[in-house]
């Protein structure tokens, strides 16, 4: 309306009011902020990245101080620890973002961050106490945490296995064991802190700032207590693995498919245990370091797929493909070596021709060998897919000769039910116009 109360000739005031109201109602909504667990998880992940950079900087300071033997790169364990920590922290942050109330995500995030921060405090203590970096605040406390904090990551793994995939123990009767498994690493760290004996290498000359008076029966009691607590922490992983067996026997449907991923991680845990034992017996540190941390790299990936229910039905396909490519690699490698040796003896002065001939031979048999090995693996270890593939292939052959629509429909439903095994199946055909 105009100032004098007259209507404008170019519009209806009622329509303008409705338009204004509609614009107010359909105005732009404020952007939805991400939930605080996701912000906290990725914020902690970012702090872990900064801590990894700090660990690398401290390692460089240790080498500049003239103690390269104490630098972490000298032991060759930086790469596996970094891969394990990044895998656990990243999968944990993703799980917290998607399932903030699921405790496994927080446990994996804590596992990854503990590996990183323990490396930082260890390098800090080494630089301050052993590499001549000078008196730095909290150096002995950092050494104490580096000496005893290793017990945190096996405790976290035990709880991850115990609470996967539902986020709760298999039954309420397991709760007393959860309290015991949570108290064991804390008791170990406290007992180690109160002992008056020197710490384990590389801090063999450092005494805990919380140590009691040297000597006496108290030290003997503390040694027994920390030994039992450390043993209980390791046993907790085996008990958690046993709880997965209980879950699997009771599980049905989707939960049973989720536990198959965890079973894959359990099998890899056995392989890692063999590698750790072999490295310990032979004294080759790189073997047990890579075996133990390689398992921590794979475990979060399997747990993440289980909790998020990601591609649950593809496990058989992944296993069969992995086994087939492993066998193919071994066979082709042995064949390549045999051909090189054989042609090398026939052509002793032309070893390059032997290598070229072996390469061409392997390239020629690669595809036929891959198909044959994959068929053998599917027949032995993925029988359902093998039978389904044969059924579909046979149906495709009969389809070319089938002319009766009713018979074709019935056979199509039967093949679908046999290969896919759905709960219900129906066929709709568009009527002719």
Cα-to-Cα separation, first versus last residue: 59 Å
- Quaternary organisation: single chain
Number of strands: 0
The outline comes out as globular
Query: Which blocks of ≥5 consecutive residues have pLDDT under 50?
Result: 1-31
CATH class of the largest domain: Mainly Alpha
What summary fits the major beta sheet? none
Percent range of helical residues: over 70%
- Tell me the CATH architecture of the largest domain: Up-down Bundle
Number of domains: 2
Please trace the helix and strand order, writing H or E for each element.
HHHHHHHHHHHHHHH
Percentage beta strand: under 5%
Q: With helices defined by DSSP (H or I, 4 residues minimum), what is the helix count?
A: 15
Mean pLDDT: 77
* Rg on CA atoms, Å: 32 Å
Briefly characterize the structure.
The protein has 433 residues and is mostly helical. The chain is built from 15 helices and no strands.
Describe this structure in words.
The protein is mainly alpha-helical and 433 residues long. It folds into two domains: 36-310, Rhopdopsin 7-helix transmembrane proteins, CATH 1.20.1070; 318-419, no CATH class. Helix content is 74%, strand content 0%. The protein has 15 helices and no strands. Helix 8 packs antiparallel against helix 9 (217-250). The longest helix has 34 residues, at 217-250. It is globular and about 95 Å long.
């Amino acid at each position: 309306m105009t100032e004098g109360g007259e209507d404008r000739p170019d519009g209806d005031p009622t329509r303008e009011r409705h338009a204004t109201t509609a614009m107010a109602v359909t105005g732009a909504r404020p952007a939805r902020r991400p939930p605080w667990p996701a912000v906290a998880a990725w914020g902690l992940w970012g702090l872990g990245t900064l801590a990894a950079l700090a660990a690398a900087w401290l390692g460089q300071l240790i080498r500049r101080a003239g103690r390269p033997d104490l630098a972490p790169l000298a032991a060759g364990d930086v790469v596996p620890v970094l891969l394990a920590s990044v895998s656990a922290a990243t999968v944990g942050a993703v799980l917290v973002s998607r399932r903030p109330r699921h405790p496994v995500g927080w446990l994996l995030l804590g596992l990854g961050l503990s590996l990183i921060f323990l490396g930082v405090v260890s390098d800090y203590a080494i630089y301050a106490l052993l590499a001549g970096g000078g008196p730095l605040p909290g150096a002995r406390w950092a050494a104490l945490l580096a000496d005893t904090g290793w017990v945190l990551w096996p405790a976290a793994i035990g709880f991850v296995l115990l609470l996967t995939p539902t986020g709760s123990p298999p039954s309420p009767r397991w709760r007393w064991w959860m309290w015991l498994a949570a108290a064991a690493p804390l008791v170990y760290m406290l007992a180690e802190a109160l002992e008056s004996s020197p710490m384990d290498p590389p801090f063999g000359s450092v005494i805990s700032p919380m140590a009691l008076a040297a000597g006496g029966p108290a030290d003997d009691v503390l040694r027994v207590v920390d030994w039992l607590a450390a043993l209980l922490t390791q046993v907790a992983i085996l008990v958690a693995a046993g709880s997965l067996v209980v879950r699997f026997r009771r599980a049905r449907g989707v939960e049973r498919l989720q536990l198959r991923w965890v079973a894959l991680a359990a099998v890899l845990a056995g392989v890692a245990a063999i590698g750790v034992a072999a490295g310990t017996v032979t004294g080759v540190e790189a073997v047990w370091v890579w075996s133990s941390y390689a398992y921590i790299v794979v475990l979060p990936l399997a747990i993440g797929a289980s909790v998020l229910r990601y591609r649950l039905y593809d496990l058989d396909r992944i296993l069969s493909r992995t086994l087939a490519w492993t066998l193919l690699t071994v066979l082709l490698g042995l064949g390549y070596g045999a051909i090189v040796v054989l042609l090398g003896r026939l052509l002793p002065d032309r070893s390059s021709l032997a290598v070229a001939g072996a390469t061409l031979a392997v390239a020629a048999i690669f595809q036929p060998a891959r198909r044959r090995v994959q068929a053998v693996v599917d027949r032995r270890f993925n029988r359902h897919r093998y039978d389904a593939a044969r059924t579909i292939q046979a149906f495709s052959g009969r389809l070319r000769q089938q002319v009766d629509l009713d018979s074709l429909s019935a056979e199509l439903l039967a093949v679908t039910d046999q290969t896919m095994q759905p709960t219900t199946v129906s066929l709709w055909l568009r009527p002719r116009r």
